[in-house]
Amino acid sequence: MRGQALIPGLHRAHRPARLAFVLAAFAAAALAGCTVTSGPDDIAIEHFAEYPGVATLLAEQHCAKFGKQAKLVQMGAQDTYGIGIRKRVSVYHCIDGPAGAGETKAKP
Predict the structure, then answer these.
(1) Within this chain, do residues 101 and 48 fall inside the same structural domain, yes or no?
(2) Which structural domain, as residue segments, surrounds residue 16?
(3) CA distance 103 to 69
(4) Nearest to 71 by CA among 51, 44, 94
(5) How many domains is the chain built from?
(6) Within this chain, do residues 41 and 75 fall inside the same structural domain, yes or no?
(7) Residue 76, CA distances (Å) to 5, 28, 68, 79, 106 in order
(8) Among 18, 26, 46, 67, which is 20 to 30 Å from 85 by CA?
(9) 22 and 59 in a common domain
């Protein structure tokens, strides 16, 4: 049964749908940030250098859980990985106050 699908014809019939799913999953992962460390007072997020807004959004959501607002305190240097993917780590402090009421942007 090597090379045969469990249901005959299923493998070839669903190849475009499977490819579309894999590409959509990769695109979603590519735009997302990844939390490096977090706590009630701060969060560090690794994200694609071209999309710092993703990190800001994740930080705002994290700090809002504690009734605080996110403030960007450090944006790390860019690291370039194998195929030209550029990432950086941004650090946010969760400060007292209503979520979204403070300054959350800094110049790189």
Answers:
(1) yes
(2) 1-31
(3) 9
(4) 94
(5) 2
(6) yes
(7) 48, 23, 23, 9, 12
(8) 18
(9) no
DSSP state of 82: T
| Gap between the Cα atoms of 37 and 44, Å rounded | 5
Give 82's strand partners. Answer: none
Residues in contact with 51: Cβ distance below 8 Å, sequence separation at least 6, in sequence order? 31, 33
Q: Do 9 and 45 belong to one domain?
A: no
Closest listed residue to residue 76, CA positions, set 93, 85, 88: 88
What does pTM read for this prediction?
A: 0.60
The pair of three-digit structure tokens given for residue 103, joined into one six-digit string: 């300054």
pLDDT at site 40: 93
Q: Of all residues in the chain, what percent carry a pLDDT higher than 70? A: 59
Asked whether the beta carbons of 47 and 80 are under 8 A apart, the reply is no
Q: Looking at the structure, do residues 80 and 27 belong to the same domain, yes or no?
A: no
Strands, E assignment, the chain: 34-38, 42-48, 68-75, 79-80, 86-96
